[in-house]
Design a protein that fits this description.
single chain; 471 residues; alpha+beta; six-stranded mixed sheet; three-stranded antiparallel sheet; binds protoporphyrin IX containing FE
Length: 471
């Protein structure tokens, strides 16, 4: 009855519906199995499509950039965090990704300075040092013709970078959280589309026990990060320092909030960039001429005498385009969601209050209406063409809740890729074998990415060029 009243307030006609093979459960089993396939099927029906799923919340997929802009930016006040975010709270608590309202505003304001361009420039040295340490390991692997799991390599590298830049510490073995992050992601994404009631999360099943163990590991790592910092003198030159100083100055940051923000940055800040870099290596492995081109670009810009500096980044046009194109094809956040607080109308279709809308960079960034030959890896799209029009490309989201770490991430990915591509070509260990994407919370290569580093032979050292001539 209540639902009928609410529905009647939403203006517009009901949108087309994607139904599953089974009654009652609708497309839910398909969503649990392969959400990307369901999103793609929805787009084939229309730009605003309702997915038939059981439960309290109607579920919609939006594919049109204008509608995405509307939700994220123009009418963002009507679109809130969702029950999916509540799931994430089991790990992230009330950190910046999951919080709302005044708490979110205060925390975003407090953390923003760490992500300003000037501050991020200061992190370039750390990013380069970590990438160079990775290059040393790769050199040994190259000498022994060893195959590496590049997904793991990039995960380690991004973790080390974020822990050093944000928390001022080294990610040694006691902060080895990679497997725990993977477990936790798998559990959450399982629960997101699960039909099982919430109480089943407390049952001592194998999956639940593994998740609890992973969560305890993550909590332990975060506690150690904070405890180490509290033992040292107060500095506020990084994110953790700012939080600790604000807490010690009596501002309203409770110990729990500190924990939640550190956990949020640890998780939001490393798997994302790591998966983009892994996909970039995969795509470059399939297009060695592009890899050659960006290696030449880096060489032309910095020579072979020194490492990448902040001033070089603007000249790495093609290298940046490779990252952008990798993120177009494989956006780490392949979809994200909002809950309609009040009834609305989008594209003439009724959106009832309490509905969840799914926005998917995966879908829109592979839409042939906006991206010709959309499945082809073609970094040229970002080199020679105008900027993509708004919300045809939105790997970092948009509107007030746009990714706080986007500039940090782009800088980190550029420094890492430039440093490594200058010295190595990565060759697929199993050429021709498909590398399938797997969507846990992030879009990652399913079952890893196995490649062999081969050292590039530069015939002669090159001094940096005055200008970048590669373009
Ligand atoms: C390639 C790398 C990255 C991608 C593609 C990415 C993507 C995103 C997206 C799509 C959102 C918005 C989700 C939504 O609107 O619901 C987001 C939010 C966020 N990201 Fe990132 N992210 C990346 C890297 C990072 C890094 C390196 C950090 C921090 C060090 C970070 C911190 C955050 C935070 C704190 C938010 C929440 C912002 C808010 O709600 O105010 N991200 N990210």
């Amino acid at each position: 009855m209540r639902r009928a009243t609410i529905l009647s307030k939403a203006r517009g006609t009901p949108p087309p519906v994607l139904r599953g093979k089974l009654p009652i459960v609708g497309v839910l089993p398909a969503l649990a199995r392969n959400p990307l396939a369901v999103l793609t099927q929805a787009r084939e029906i229309g730009d605003v499509v309702r997915l038939a799923v059981p439960g309290r919340h109607a579920l919609f997929v939006l594919a049109d950039p204008a509608h995405i802009r509307y939700v994220l930016q123009e009418n963002d006040r009507n679109y809130r965090r969702t029950p999916f975010h509540d799931r994430l709270k089991v790990i992230l608590g009330e950190g910046l990704v999951t919080s709302e309202g005044e708490l979110w505003r205060q925390q975003r304001h407090l953390l923003q300075p760490t992500f300003r361009a000037e501050q991020v420039r200061g992190f370039v040295r750390i990013m380069r040092e970590q990438a160079e340490a990775c290059a040393m390991r790769w050199q040994q692997a190259a000498e022994k013709t060893e195959v590496l799991d590049v997904s793991r390599e990039m995960s380690d590298l991004a973790l080390k970078i974020v822990v050093r830049c944000m928390f001022g510490q080294d990610a040694g073995e006691d902060l080895d959280v990679r497997d725990a992050v993977h477990e936790a992601q798998a559990w959450i994404s399982d629960r997101i589309w699960s039909l099982a009631p919430d109480w089943t999360e407390r049952l001592p099943t194998r999956g639940n026990r593994r998740f609890r163990r992973s969560l305890a590991m993550l909590n332990g790592a975060v506690e150690r990060i904070i405890a180490r910092r509290l033992r040292t003198t107060a500095r506020n030159d990084d994110l953790l320092g700012m939080l600790v100083v604000a807490q010690q100055a009596g501002e309203s940051i409770k110990a729990r909030q500190l924990r939640d923000e550190v956990m949020t940055m640890l998780l939001a800040g490393h798997e994302t960039s790591a998966t983009v870099l892994a996909w970039a290596w995969h795509l470059l492995g399939e297009s060695p001429s592009v890899a050659e081109r960006i290696s030449a670009e880096v060489r032309q810009t910095i020579g072979t005498f020194r490492g990448v500096e902040a001033e070089d980044l603007a000249s790495l046009t093609v290298t940046r385009a490779v990252i952008q194109e990798s993120m177009r094809l494989y956006p780490p956040a392949a979809w994200f969601a909002r809950l309609a607080a009040g009834p609305d109308s989008i594209g003439g279709f009724a959106i009832p209050s309490g509905a969840i809308v799914l926005l998917s960079p995966w879908l829109t960034q592979r839409d042939r209406r906006f991206w010709p030959d959309p499945d082809r890896f073609d970094p040229e799209r970002f080199v020679s063409h105008e900027r993509p029009s708004a919300y045809t490309y939105f790997p970092f989201g948009g509107g007030p809740r746009t990714c706080l770490g986007n500039h940090f991430a782009m800088t980190e990915m550029l420094v890492a890729l430039a440093t490594l591509v200058l010295r190595f070509q990565l060759v697929h260990a199993h050429p021709g074998a498909p590398v399938r994407p797997e969507l846990l919370l992030m879009l990652r290569p399913a079952r890893g990415l196995f490649m062999q580093p081969v050292e590039r032979r530069h015939t002669e050292p090159v001094a940096p060029a005055d200008t970048c001539s590669v373009r």
